[in-house]
Please model this.
Amino acid sequence: MATVVLLTCTGLGLGALYFLIASGLSLIFGLMDVLNFAHGALLTIGAYGTWWAASGHLPGAGPGGAGFVLAVFFGTATGTVAAVLLEVAVIRPLYTRPREQILATVGVGLAVPALLSALWGADPRPLTGPKALSGTFGLLGAQVPLNRPVLIAAAVLVLAALKLFLGRTRHGLVVRAGVEDRAMVTALGIDVRKAFTLVFAIGGAAAALGGALGGLYFGSVDPGQGTSLLIFAFVVVVTGGLGSLTGAALASVAVGLVQQFANYYTTAGLGDVAVVVLLAALLLIRPRGLTGRLA
Model:
């Protein structure tokens, strides 16, 4: 029983991490029809920004307490700024050229890890979090790491915030309207470009937050972290349905749990295979994924 509880909590924590990455991918694709292959680079930038700040380079930031919260904010802000620059400098000129858009984001996704490797080396850098999150707590006989509930809470808050943004705020409604009829919204005097940049910033912030908190989950950051996690984020987006936040949330839970249980009860590494099998089986039954819409 204790093993099942521990695997479940760990799987939910991993699923929460996948959702933080996949939510931005799903939001950007669902609203802007952009497959951003540089999304993993934004995660890596957020992770390294958090590590850099927590290492004492940012005044007031550090590995413990409020200092670590400040480091996470700094890493998230760094990833958000990088997302805005990516949209303005790379994506915006290529909105009507999807093939070049994909090639450009792939290039950025390869260039950022290479740049980080050149600056700080390819070896993983340990990310030390607050002592309050370094221990475990008892749950039904299992000792669960304290950082797992933090990841789950962050994913739930991001999901709720995105839902509110899309359905209850003026900017969210403008973005949705701009997707449906860009010419009409522009004729009303609304700058749709700014709205799309806001969507990219939000997606980048979610990815950077995932990178910051992913350092807690793995205990380190490295240049290839974003690239490896991006693969599973795409699996989550396709499984949940392209452009569906609700589907991405459900798929994140399923992928995280399947991966953890398969890795434990079979040979290590077969969890990745099990995730691919899950995706293939689902697409045979439901080609559009679990939901297939932005909801």
About this structure: The CA atoms of residues 15 and 256 lie 4 Å apart.
